[in-house]
Amino acid sequence: MTEQGIKQRGMAPQGTDTAEAAKPVTAKPVTTKYVLAGFGGQGVLFVGKVLAQAGMMAKKQVTWIPAYGPEMRGGTANCSVIISDRKIGSPTVGKPSVCLTMNQAAYEKFLHTIVPGGVLYVNSSIVADLPGRDDIRIVKAPVNDLAHDLGSAKVANIVMLGIMQALTPSVSDKELEDALMQLAGKKPELAELNRQALKAGMEFANRL
Amino acid sequence: MAILMKGNEAIAEAAIQAGCRLFCGYPITPSTEIPEYMAKKMKKAGGTYLQAESEVAAIYMVYGAGAAGARVMSGTSSPGFSLMQEGLSYLFAAEIPCVIADVMRGGPGLGGLGPTQADYFQLTKGGGHGDYHPIVLAPATVQEMIDLTKEAFDLADIYRNPVILAVDGILGQMMEPVEFPGTYKAKILPAKTWAADGCEGRPKNNVISYYLSSEAGEADNLRWGKKMAQMQAAEQRFAELSLDDAEYAFVAFGTSSRITETAIDMLRSEGVKVGLFRPISLWPFPVEGLQKRVPQIKGWMSIELSAGQMVQDVRLAVNGRAPVGFYGRQGGMIPEPEEIVAAFKTQILQGGVQR
């Protein structure tokens, strides 16, 4: 496992509407724009739903849009999520401030769309060590392996969500966990697995 | 409490809450969540979800149920909406209330699955044969989809007229926080004494659109003309953003109005006094509201997911008193706010478009 560029924990990218991502935290309203991408079945749409649900529970403005067109039928899936302190105008995300790529096709497609100063999360279990960018932070995490260690490869997405929460949170840890439990906590055994996956991701990020 | 919901699902849930108990349709991307939700929920509400063999069949099922007085709807996307045009013309002439959602996608032809607003002409100018207009409502948020869907059923009943919800693929697919029951307040409407719902003890009602003499045909058309004039007088709806001090104005509806809002933020941060005029009723087009702004606006610009259709109505309303520009993307592509800003500067600020 490798990581590049993460110097400070808990520093959310300040992607405002004008994409001035590198500015320090101020009282200015914060808008975080996500693109979450991977194979169908890797749960990237679900990660987006948890983020949107958590943002809503935190009384922020949120939008969630899936790529629903022919893209879906090519075996890749992605969604765009915006979490903002202010009313959301354009709900589409051309230039994300936070991007998740769970497979190589997604990495190649979205690497160059991220705003300078943004963060890219990469599933390094299956994405090869490819050329990156110097003006964004790239966080590589072997989430398939981490999920496998928990006993279920299915929760790799939730492990990654935990990593994202530790490094670029848009809501509090509790809000995120509550949102996850609302969407995936109905069966007790799944609730526990998801909770563990989220925790494992956050612990992994803390060791970076 | 707010919940996250897709636009398509919001339309379906709002319809059920508005008393719609029959949905007839045929699934088509990007509107499929409407029939999907109806298939799941309609039975529990004591209603019926009926998958037709085609959109042509679906619209005539709507005709039959509406003629019998039921609150009925269908939902489709552009190619399916084209198939419904003959039926909509018949529904108008028979004065049958109904609500149809058109979740627009790429065209012409089979087109693509991406979002567009390119059915504007077909929606607003009467897409079938004869002199008619449906009422056309264009929401811009998922919450507004709920409020307008509920209202659509009342408008359909009040005017005995088809009402179309004009939605693009993004709004249909997007999830936003929504609250039920929303802003809509139920109205008490007169009983449907015209409906063909069993005539024991009274003369029978015919809910048909055929007349045997041209004189009768003209009389009907004149009566419908009066009804449409009433709708034009009473049902123009719009919203405004940042127009009070504006020197320039965008006109946009649905998703393109959302993108335009971001473009306005960008232009305002550069000191350009620009605002948004957002038609909510596409027919009747909100001419009166727009014309109130004409004296102060030095340049207009219509932003659409089409080759430029609504811009014609904007030009008619502005009537030569200021330049009217246009920017749009087609085929399922969506403009970035930066593109809108650039087009506005070229066409309006630098005088690329004449009045």
Automatic annotation (TrEMBL), chain A:
This is Pyruvate ferredoxin/flavodoxin oxidoreductase protein. Its EC number is 1.-.-.-, 1.2.-.-. Keywords: Oxidoreductase, Pyruvate. Gene3D superfamilies: Pyruvate-ferredoxin oxidoreductase, PFOR, domain III (3.40.920.10). One of its GO terms (molecular function) is oxidoreductase activity, acting on the aldehyde or oxo group of donors. It comes from the Bacteria. The lineage of its organism: Bacteria, Bacillati, Bacillota, Clostridia, Eubacteriales. SUPFAM superfamilies: Pyruvate-ferredoxin oxidoreductase, PFOR, domain III. Pfam families: POR. Residues 1-23 are annotated as: Disordered. Residues 40-203 form the Pyruvate/ketoisovalerate oxidoreductase catalytic domain.
Automatic annotation (TrEMBL), chain B:
Its EC number is 1.-.-.-. SUPFAM superfamilies: Thiamin diphosphate-binding fold (THDP-binding), TK C-terminal domain-like. The keyword Oxidoreductase applies. One of its GO terms (molecular function) is oxidoreductase activity. It comes from the Bacteria. NCBIfam families: PRK07119.1. Residues 13-184 form the Pyruvate flavodoxin/ferredoxin oxidoreductase pyrimidine binding domain. InterPro entries: 2-oxoacid_oxidoreductase, PFOR_II, Pyrv_Fd/Flavodoxin_OxRdtase_N, THDP-binding, Transketo_C/PFOR_II. It is an enzyme of class 1 (oxidoreductase). The lineage of its organism: Bacteria, Bacillati, Bacillota, Clostridia, Eubacteriales. Residues 246-340 form the Pyruvate:ferredoxin oxidoreductase core domain. This is Ketoisovalerate oxidoreductase subunit VorB. It comes from Acididesulfobacillus acetoxydans. Keywords: Oxidoreductase, Pyruvate.
